[in-house]
């Protein structure tokens, strides 16, 4: 017997939605996937009319789907946004050079202006050189700190004050779990916010906050989007890896676990008496920092002195 789509009741159901378990046809899957993201954008008043927005683009599935969906929603619902692609070149031979080729093709496919900023030009060090110095243990710490600043600096070069990233529901649930396990109250409070603003006035948003990774993969697959799926040669952050494995196990038992964890994070409140670090600016480079020097400057100083460890 042919099973019909539970939404339109006309077409044959060919997808079981990972998020809800509903059996739907391809057309309805696209429609609900896109509409849920649109609803998230509208409910949280993410954009202002005529805003210039940079899409952080790595060539991976999340940012490729983000570029595709943002262009589509911007036209369908007339958000009036001016969209850009912003890519970071960490300088990882055999990984980032290939994925940047994907971003360049995406630029053609979506007809969006592209800006690439590299660690070498910003910091005088590529990740290849950093790994030669520090080995494969703390490389992701350097990379993560440098990427955050690099995106902000790229946004300034593009003259945009809003960056959107492809972080999905799974990423956010993982971050909630990691912050609980580390006891990092300050981050736990911030990590579920859909939009954050640092002192640099550049807003960062996550339109995929409630979008399941499995659905992003399905969407990219059915739409035959051009993305890069190789993992970084310098191995992923292992602590996040543990949280990820745990989350996947939970999802297998109960798919709503991902959203439930995000909702728990959102409901989290800190007592007024608890003191949190105050935000200032880095004395050396002016980037936001809760210490005298920002993390990037501390790491760079170590690198330049030859004392990275
Ligand atoms: Fe950078 Fe680590 Fe990610 Fe590779 S895995 S891109 S080194 S943060
Ligand atoms: Zn349908
Ligand atoms: Zn600094």
TrEMBL record:
<keyword id="KW-0067">ATP-binding</keyword>
<keyword id="KW-0820">tRNA-binding</keyword>
<protein>
    <recommendedName>
        <fullName>Cytoplasmic tRNA 2-thiolation protein 1</fullName>
        <ecNumber>2.7.7.-</ecNumber>
    </recommendedName>
</protein>
<dbReference type="InterPro" id="IPR035107">
    <property type="entry name" value="tRNA_thiolation_TtcA_Ctu1"/>
</dbReference>
<feature type="binding site">
    <location>
        <begin position="56"/>
        <end position="58"/>
    </location>
    <ligand>
        <name>ATP</name>
    </ligand>
</feature>
<keyword id="KW-0808">Transferase</keyword>
<feature type="binding site">
    <location>
        <position position="166"/>
    </location>
    <ligand>
        <name>ATP</name>
    </ligand>
</feature>
<dbReference type="InterPro" id="IPR011063">
    <property type="entry name" value="TilS/TtcA_N"/>
</dbReference>
<keyword id="KW-0963">Cytoplasm</keyword>
<dbReference type="InterPro" id="IPR032442">
    <property type="entry name" value="CTU1_C"/>
</dbReference>
<keyword id="KW-0819">tRNA processing</keyword>
<dbReference type="GO" id="GO:0016779">
    <property type="term" value="F:nucleotidyltransferase activity"/>
</dbReference>
<dbReference type="GO" id="GO:0005739">
    <property type="term" value="C:mitochondrion"/>
</dbReference>
<dbReference type="InterPro" id="IPR020554">
    <property type="entry name" value="UPF0021_CS"/>
</dbReference>
<keyword id="KW-0547">Nucleotide-binding</keyword>
<dbReference type="GO" id="GO:0032447">
    <property type="term" value="P:protein urmylation"/>
</dbReference>
<dbReference type="Pfam" id="PF01171">
    <property type="entry name" value="ATP_bind_3"/>
</dbReference>
<dbReference type="InterPro" id="IPR014729">
    <property type="entry name" value="Rossmann-like_a/b/a_fold"/>
</dbReference>
<dbReference type="GO" id="GO:0005524">
    <property type="term" value="F:ATP binding"/>
</dbReference>
<comment type="similarity">
    <text>Belongs to the TtcA family. CTU1/NCS6/ATPBD3 subfamily.</text>
</comment>
<comment type="pathway">
    <text>tRNA modification; 5-methoxycarbonylmethyl-2-thiouridine-tRNA biosynthesis.</text>
</comment>
<keyword id="KW-0694">RNA-binding</keyword>
<dbReference type="Pfam" id="PF16503">
    <property type="entry name" value="zn-ribbon_14"/>
</dbReference>
<dbReference type="GO" id="GO:0002143">
    <property type="term" value="P:tRNA wobble position uridine thiolation"/>
</dbReference>
<feature type="binding site">
    <location>
        <position position="171"/>
    </location>
    <ligand>
        <name>ATP</name>
    </ligand>
</feature>
<dbReference type="InterPro" id="IPR000541">
    <property type="entry name" value="Ncs6/Tuc1/Ctu1"/>
</dbReference>
<comment type="function">
    <text>Plays a central role in 2-thiolation of mcm(5)S(2)U at tRNA wobble positions of tRNA(Lys), tRNA(Glu) and tRNA(Gln). Directly binds tRNAs and probably acts by catalyzing adenylation of tRNAs, an intermediate required for 2-thiolation. It is unclear whether it acts as a sulfurtransferase that transfers sulfur from thiocarboxylated URM1 onto the uridine of tRNAs at wobble position. Prior mcm(5) tRNA modification by the elongator complex is required for 2-thiolation. May also be involved in protein urmylation.</text>
</comment>
<feature type="binding site">
    <location>
        <position position="88"/>
    </location>
    <ligand>
        <name>ATP</name>
    </ligand>
</feature>
<feature type="domain" description="tRNA(Ile)-lysidine/2-thiocytidine synthase N-terminal">
    <location>
        <begin position="52"/>
        <end position="231"/>
    </location>
</feature>
<dbReference type="GO" id="GO:0002144">
    <property type="term" value="C:cytosolic tRNA wobble base thiouridylase complex"/>
</dbReference>
<feature type="domain" description="Cytoplasmic tRNA 2-thiolation protein 1 C-terminal">
    <location>
        <begin position="281"/>
        <end position="309"/>
    </location>
</feature>
<feature type="binding site">
    <location>
        <position position="62"/>
    </location>
    <ligand>
        <name>ATP</name>
    </ligand>
</feature>
<dbReference type="GO" id="GO:0000049">
    <property type="term" value="F:tRNA binding"/>
</dbReference>
<dbReference type="InterPro" id="IPR056369">
    <property type="entry name" value="CTU1-like_ATP-bd"/>
</dbReference>
């Amino acid at each position: 017997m042919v099973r019909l789509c539970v939404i339109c009741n006309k077409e044959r159901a060919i997808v079981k939605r990972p998020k809800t378990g509903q059996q739907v046809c391809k057309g309805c899957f696209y429609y609900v996937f896109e509409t849920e993201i649109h609803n998230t954008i509208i409910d949280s008043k993410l954009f202002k009319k005529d805003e210039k927005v940079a899409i952080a683009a790595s060539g991976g599935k999340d940012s490729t789907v983000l570029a595709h969906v943002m262009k589509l929603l911007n036209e369908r619902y007339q958000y009036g946004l001016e969209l850009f692609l912003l890519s970071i070149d960490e300088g990882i031979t055999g990984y980032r050079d290939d994925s940047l080729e994907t971003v360049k093709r995406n630029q053609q496919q979506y007809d969006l202006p592209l800006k690439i900023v590299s660690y070498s030009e910003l910091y005088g060090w590529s990740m290849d050189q950093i790994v030669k110095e520090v080995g494969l243990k703390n490389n992701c710490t350097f990379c993560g700190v440098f990427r955050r600043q690099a995106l902000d600096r790229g946004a300034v070069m593009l003259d945009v004050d809003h960056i959107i990233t492809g972080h999905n529901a799974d990423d956010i649930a993982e971050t909630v779990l990691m912050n609980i396990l580390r006891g990092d109250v300050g981050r736990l409070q911030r990590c579920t916010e859909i939009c954050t603003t640092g002192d640099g006035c550049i807003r960062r948003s996550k339109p995929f906050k409630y979008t399941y990774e499995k659905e992003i993969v399905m969407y990219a697959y059915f739409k035959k989007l051009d993305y890069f799926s190789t993992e970084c040669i310098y191995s992923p952050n292992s602590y996040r890896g543990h949280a990820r494995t745990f989350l996947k196990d939970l999802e297998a038992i109960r798919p709503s676990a991902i959203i439930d964890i995000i909702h728990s994070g959102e409901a989290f409140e800190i007592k007024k008496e608890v003191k949190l670090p105050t935000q200032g600016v880095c004395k050396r480079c002016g980037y936001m920092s809760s210490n005298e020097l920002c993390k990037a400057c501390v790491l760079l100083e170590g690198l330049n002195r030859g004392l990275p460890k």
